[in-house]
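S1.2 Input.
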Amino acid sequence: MSLEKDKAEALTRLAEALGGDRSSLISMAVEEFLEERFHLLPPHPCEGVLVVSYSPEQEEGVFKVAEEFKDCIVGKLHMHNASGLCVEIMYVRADSSRIAELHSRMRRERCGCRFVPSH
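S1.3 Output.
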């Protein structure tokens, strides 16, 4: 596997800071990535937390997507981080395919987006 030089260096620094090695960090990162993505693939009733971060200029697009998916957004909290980015924490409940679609649409808005299942 190859990485861009800056990412490889950052990974080395992180491994050293944590007292581990790059291989174990990569393995952990891949495991988390796969778990997050594969969780939504099999159709099932699903719920969890969707964390979305974006610049204030993107707010209108994010709001439109959230409106389209209001049937599965149980509640949400909006705040700003120290550098001024918007952060939305949404609790969602729907079929896994609907949550996957919401996740995908937020990513298409160029948002940072993570889903954490609660089951």
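S1.4 Remarks. Helices lie at 5-18, 22-39, 59-68, 96-108.
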